[in-house]
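lol forgot to send this yesterday, sorry. struct tokens for the thing we talked abt
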């Protein structure tokens, strides 16, 4: 017989399981996104051509997932995203364009340090717009992760490039807005919005790209870039962010920062510095601590 206490415990367990699942999905998305540097090293093409094929393969992958899941209701699923989905699509597309251009106008150090502020941006937007407060644990872990990123790049030479830094900041805000929208409209799937975003990024860079200048080997790497890095990353991020707060999702996404040099080291032997390893360990510890502490608190809520 289900007593009220038993029902409460069961409900709390379900919420806790959802939080853990969301955290693991977003962590898996960070692993996918972190392979960008590795794949970029493998593809000897200009940035715009890479972005064109990456977006095209990513959109195809996500479209296939949506069709597989919804079958005859695919078009209805795309229509169901509404205005919120279109805004999320625009945010994702704009963030991609701003991010790539920021890397061309300023240092990678500046870009990654600014991007590490995404959890704080997401928490601020969620509070201003939805009056949803991030937990103290997540905010503290976000600050620790930010220190870890700063430690990773602390030895790097800092060069001020205002235009690139502004674009990196714009990308940070756009990504945070996208996460808040996905979380706010969690009753519907915004995966079609991410599919449209990947396609839109290809359309935007098409005039600057050279799609025909690709051999079969490069095309294979580009297919992996679009499906496993972009498509799978967006799929996991979109599903996971519906289960946890936008700030926590953004914090876990910071795992991408220490993982990126790890794959390059394993593939090419580019040994990261001691500071990079130490900073990466701090980021990973902050994320793991937040996942464990937030999941432990859920059943009691």
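and heres what i got for the seq, position by position
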């Amino acid at each position: 017989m289900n007593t009220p206490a038993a029902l409460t415990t069961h409900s709390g367990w379900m919420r806790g399981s959802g939080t853990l699942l969301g955290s693991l999905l977003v962590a898996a998305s960070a692993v996918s996104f972190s392979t960008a540097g590795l794949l970029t090293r493998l593809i000897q093409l200009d940035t715009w051509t890479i972005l064109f094929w990456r977006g095209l393969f990513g959109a195809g992958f996500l479209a296939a997932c949506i069709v597989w899941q919804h079958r005859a209701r695919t078009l209805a699923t795309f229509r169901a995203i509404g205005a919120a989905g279109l805004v999320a699509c625009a945010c994702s597309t704009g963030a991609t364009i701003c991010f790539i251009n920021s890397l061309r106008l300023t240092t990678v150090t500046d870009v990654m340090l600014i991007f590490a502020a995404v959890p704080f941006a997401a928490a601020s937007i969620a509070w201003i717009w939805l009056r949803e407060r991030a937990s103290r644990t997540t905010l503290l872990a976000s600050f620790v992760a930010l220190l870890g990123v700063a430690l990773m790049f602390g030895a790097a030479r800092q060069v001020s490039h205002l235009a690139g830094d502004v674009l990196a900041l714009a990308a940070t805000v756009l990504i945070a807005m996208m996460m808040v929208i996905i979380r706010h409209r969690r009753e519907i799937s915004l995966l079609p919005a991410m599919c449209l975003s990947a396609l839109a990024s290809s359309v935007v860079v098409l005039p600057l790209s050279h799609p025909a200048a690709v051999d079969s080997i490069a095309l294979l790497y580009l297919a992996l870039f679009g499906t496993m890095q972009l498509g799978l990353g967006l799929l996991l991020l979109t599903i996971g962010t519906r289960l946890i707060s936008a700030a926590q999702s953004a914090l876990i996404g910071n795992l991408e920062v220490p993982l990126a040099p790890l794959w390059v080291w394993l593939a090419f032997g580019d040994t990261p510095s001691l500071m990079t390893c130490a900073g990466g360990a701090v980021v990973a510890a902050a994320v793991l601590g937040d996942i464990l502490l937030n999941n432990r608190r859920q059943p009691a809520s």
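Residues 16 and 297 are 8 Å apart (CA to CA). anyway ping me if u want another try
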